[in-house]
Design a protein that fits this description.
Elements: H1 25-37, H2 40-52, H3 56-80, H4 87-95, H5 98-127, H6 135-152, H7 154-158, H8 161-182, H9 200-217, H10 233-262, H11 265-269, H12 274-283, H13 288-318, H14 337-353, H15 356-384, H16 398-420
Helix pairs in contact: 1-8, 1-10, 2-5, 2-9, 3-9, 3-10, 3-15, 3-16, 4-5, 4-15, 5-6, 5-13, 5-14, 5-15, 6-13, 6-14, 8-10, 8-12, 8-13, 9-15, 9-16, 13-14, 15-16
């Protein structure tokens, strides 16, 4: 007797439907910007200012250049393997190891959990502008509420994604325009961001801030996970990845510079709602408007990370990399409740016990490890089977080597900077 082995909920004798290829370059780029810009810049600008002062914009440029190498590797891999599995799929194909692929999947889960915890801490700071409660209470409320939404269903959050992206980017553009309008000398002061040569303390601060800035660029790689829903992914995904990185970099550098030039290093460093403070100084208006925009950005960031982490746990369970219980879906909500609950609990624990900058640093370090493995995967695939499809973006052979070296190098420099403090 034939035994049905299809997906849960799929009836025997029926073909599982494929994902619709409906995303254009514009759609893909907006998605990439929404995931990348998200909440990073809204919550870490104060920590970046504390570490590098007026030189912080250069750290964002350095982080962008480092990410550009890995972005090129992702662009080629997304063309070679246009599947939703992402990083784990690349590692499995390159190293032919289910265990290593599972390990990478768990690293991606860890990145999502730690990132959500960092964003939750930052979100509580902005919520505190409206609700004067202790920070731990606000953090717990944010995490538990977003965990509940993630458990309720993904459709409810996805329907707001486009609007949230526009609001997030609009908030940053508002600050940039207000900055240039309020002080014509801001451009003339740009040389102040160039650090003196040979100052070890400045170098340590720049290295530390570059690691922190990596946190703000996390997300562009998520475009690889919608590859099956993109029209002509071999052509569209590389363009969307590079557009996302370029637009994010310009916005970040402009916002960081305007914030430092108008508010100053120490006021930014000691504010729990730094961009709201910048908006208040620039316009004289109450910080409520920018705080509301930041709340939208941060809450969106928290729920996206919780959903992603729970879905990776679900996927690993179905690939037999984790206990099957993580792959169970509620008949009522059609979501993996246990995976979502475990993710939410881990986010809450980390958010209540670790400060924002430590969480952001941990996220960046884990991301650099995953990016190094992705670059190594492309090196192996290039050596084994050079791409011959003219539609695929082909990164030069040196790019994945440089990408892997840059990720490892920044981790080493970060360790040296930690020892030098």
């Amino acid at each position: 007797m034939h035994q049905w082995t299809g997906s849960p909920g799929e009836a025997p004798g029926r073909t599982e439907p494929a994902l619709a290829k409906s995303l254009s370059l514009l759609h893909a780029t907006l998605y990439g910007l929404g995931v990348t810009i998200g909440a990073g810049i809204y919550v870490l600008i104060g920590a970046a200012a504390a570490r590098a002062g007026m030189y912080a914009p250069l750290a964002f440029v350095a982080a962008a250049l480092l990410m550009a190498l890995s972005a090129a590797s992702f662009a080629e891999l997304a063309g070679r393997l246009p599947v939703a599995a992402g990083e784990a799929a690349y590692v499995r194909e390159a190293f032919r190891s289910d265990r290593l692929a599972t390990a990478v999947g768990l690293l991606v889960v860890a990145i999502a959990i730690v990132s959500a915890a960092a964003i939750s801490v930052g979100s509580a700071g902005y919520v505190g502008v409206f609700v004067p409660l202790p920070a731990p209470v606000l953090i717990a409320a944010v995490v538990l509420a977003m965990g509940a939404v993630a458990a309720w269903g993904v459709k409810e959050s996805v329907s707001l994604a486009g609007t949230m992206t526009v609001i997030e980017i609009g908030g940053l553009l508002l600050l940039v325009f207000a900055g240039f309008a309020s002080d014509a000398k801001i451009v003339a002061r740009l040389p102040e961001m160039v650090p003196p040569v040979g100052n070890p303390a400045v170098l340590v601060g720049l290295v530390s801030t570059t690691l922190l800035a990596v946190f703000a660029f996390i997300g562009f790689e998520g475009l690889a996970n919608v590859a099956e829903e993109v029209r002509e992914p071999q052509r569209t995904l590389p363009r969307a990845i590079f557009l996302t990185l370029a637009i994010s970099t310009v916005l970040y550098v402009a916002v960081v510079w305007i914030a430092l030039a108008t508010v100053g290093q120490w006021d930014l460093a000691h504010s729990s709602a730094p961009l709201a403070l910048v908006f208040e100084r620039l316009t004289g208006a109450p910080p409520a408007i920018m705080s509301f925009i930041a709340i939208v950005a941060t809450l969106n960031g928290v729920i996206v990370q919780i959903i992603m982490s729970s879905r990776v746990l679900y996927g690993l369970a179905h690939q037999r990399g984790l206990p099957a219980v993580f792959g169970r879906v509620s008949a009522a909500t059609r979501t993996p409740l246990l995976a979502t609950a475990v993710t939410t609990a881990c986010v809450l624990l980390l958010a209540l016990t670790l400060p924002l900058h430590d969480l952001a640093d941990a996220t960046s370090r884990l991301t650099l490890v995953v990016f190094a493995l992705v670059n190594l995967s492309l090196i192996r695939l290039k050596a084994r089977a050079p791409a011959d499809d003219p539609r695929i973006f082909i990164a030069p052979k040196w790019v994945p080597w440089a990408g892997a070296a840059a990720c490892v190098g920044l981790l080493v420099l970060d360790l040296a900077a930690m020892l030098a403090r």
